[in-house]
Amino acid sequence: MGSGGEGVRREGGLSAAPTEPLLIRSFLRYGLIGGFATAVHYAVLVLCVEVFKWPAFIGSGTGAVVGAQVAFFGNRHFTFAHRGALGPAWAKFQGTAMLGALVGMGVVALAVHAGWHYLLGQILATLAGLVLTFAVNRAWTFR
């Protein structure tokens, strides 16, 4: 068993039925790593919008790409204790992050179009992305 595993490890991956406390612990770790990666994401977003004067949805996507790299390495080691091949896990994580980023960009674009501040839109996008990407990464990326 690894430090962030969600069940009994067996050859080929995790068991299909994690115990509830381990699932909760993994989600909390995911949230901690995600919080740090989100801070990086927001910093890049604000830099892009306020300094470079890019549209908010482009800044959101750029921040998501940078934050995803932080999140991948943190979650690979701390949340899921993944010991599998780096390349395939990285590619799956990036695909998942791209899905989350596209959903987030859509939420930010809709929020700005509705007259909301772009950071309020980004907060909503972050919450939606947290649940979506945890489920996908747990079930697919770090299997």
Structure description:
By secondary structure, the chain is an all-alpha fold. It has one domain (30-141). Helix content is 76%, strand content 3%. The protein is built from four helices and two strands, in the order ββαααα. The chain has helices at 20-51, 56-79, 86-113, 118-141; strands at residues 9-10, 13-14. Strands 1-2 form a two-stranded antiparallel sheet. Strand 1 and strand 2 (13-14) form a beta hairpin. Helix 1 runs antiparallel to helix 2 (56-79) and helix 2 packs antiparallel against helix 3 (86-113). It is elongated, with a radius of gyration of 16 Å.
List key phrases describing it.
143 residues, mainly alpha, 4 helices, 76% helix
Question: Outline, from the CA principal axes?
Answer: elongated
Q: Strand order across the biggest sheet? A: 1-2
Query: How many DSSP E strands?
Result: 2
Number of helices: 4
Query: What sequence of helices (H) and strands (E) makes up the elements?
Result: EEHHHH
The description of the largest β-sheet is: 2 strands, antiparallel
- Helical coverage, percent range: over 70%
Rg estimate, integer Å: 16 Å
Q: What distance separates the N and C termini?
A: 14 Å
